[in-house]
């Protein structure tokens, strides 16, 4: 597979839709980086599948359009159809998953080929899935971290864009480790989106390769 991207020469900023299910701190980190001009993008829509997600209120405080599209009780295709309609109406170019607690179907992923990003709180491919920080701490690893990756049809399995490493301390608990990983997530997510939007890149096999010297 060879896929290329070059957004840096675009006159307009990329239009980003964020999907979340909870507190929304990674969404906030992205929004702040966009506002500071560090990432040439604009978050044009935030969607939560959980109406009670604190991230929705944070988006509203920033004046970013935010809607709940509840997934509870809906078949997956129907829920994703509603998501896609909202994202298309907002003319979204990129989708950033920020603590979105549902797997996306292959047809949803195919609607934004190599334009969906996710952040995971471990160094993939180690510890995919839920409670990654606790999995890593219980396993006894000496380093963990976070991964920003393009989303494919698998679970936490797409090509890696950025990883940041966090040393595990002997006196860590799963919670203290998670807190230090979260600090790095807030750096890694804007960093990854900025790279993808400003540097020529391609996918070789599973590898996201950025052009040298660009
Ligand atoms: C983060 O740890 C992220 O890596 C994971 O879900 C959590 C979301 O946190 N996918 P927040 O809602 O962005 O604060």
Q: Would you tell me which CATH topology of the largest domain applies?
A: Rossmann fold
Percent of residues in helices = 25-40%
Biggest sheet strand order reads: 4-3-2-5-6-7-8
Task: Please indicate the percent range of residues in DSSP E strands (runs of 2 or more).
Answer: 25-35%
- What is the assigned CATH homologous superfamily of the largest domain? Formyl transferase, N-terminal domain
Tell me, what is the CATH class of the largest domain?
Alpha Beta
How many domains? 2
Q: Indicate the CATH architecture of the largest domain.
A: 3-Layer(aba) Sandwich
Kindly state the mean pLDDT as a whole number?
A: 95
Bound molecules: 5-O-phosphono-beta-D-ribofuranosylamine
Number of strands: 10
Basic shape: globular
Q: Return residue spans where pLDDT drops below 50 for at least 5 consecutive residues.
A: none
Total of helices:
6
- Largest beta-sheet characterization: 7 strands, mixed
Oligomer: single chain
Series of secondary-structure elements, N-terminal to C-terminal? EEHEHEHEHEHEEHEE
Spatial gap, N to C terminus: 22 Å
- What's the gyration radius in Å? 17 Å
Structural class: alpha/beta
List the helices and strands and how they pair.
Blueprint: E1 2-5, E2 14-20, H1 25-35, E3 41-48, H2 54-61, E4 66-68, H3 76-89, E5 94-97, H4 106-111, E6 116-120, H5 132-139, E7 143-150, E8 160-167, H6 174-198, E9 201-204, E10 207-210
Parallel strand pairs: 2-3, 2-5, 3-4, 5-6
Antiparallel strand pairs: 1-9, 6-7, 7-8, 9-10
């Amino acid at each position: 597979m060879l896929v290329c991207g070059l957004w840096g020469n675009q006159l307009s900023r990329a239009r980003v839709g964020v999907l979340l299910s909870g507190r929304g701190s990674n969404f906030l980190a992205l929004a702040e980086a966009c506002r500071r001009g560090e990432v040439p993008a604009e978050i044009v829509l935030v969607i939560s599948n959980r109406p009670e997600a604190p991230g929705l209120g944070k988006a509203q405080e920033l004046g970013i359009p935010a809607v709940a599209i509840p997934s509870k009780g809906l078949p997956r295709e129907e829920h994703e159809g509603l998501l896609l309609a909202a994202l298309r109406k907002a003319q979204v170019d990129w989708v950033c998953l920020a603590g979105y607690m549902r797997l996306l179907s292959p047809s949803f992923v195919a609607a934004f080929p190599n334009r969906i990003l996710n952040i995971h709180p471990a160094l993939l491919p180690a510890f995919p899935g839920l409670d990654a920080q606790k999995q890593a701490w219980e396993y006894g690893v000496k380093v963990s971290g976070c991964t920003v990756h393009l989303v494919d049809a698998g679970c936490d399995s797409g090509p890696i864009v950025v990883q940041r490493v966090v040393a595990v301390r002997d006196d860590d608990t799963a919670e203290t480790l998670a807190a230090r990983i979260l600090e790095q997530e807030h750096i890694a997510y804007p960093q990854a989106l900025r790279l993808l939007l400003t540097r020529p890149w391609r996918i070789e096999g599973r590898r996201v390769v950025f052009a040298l010297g660009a």
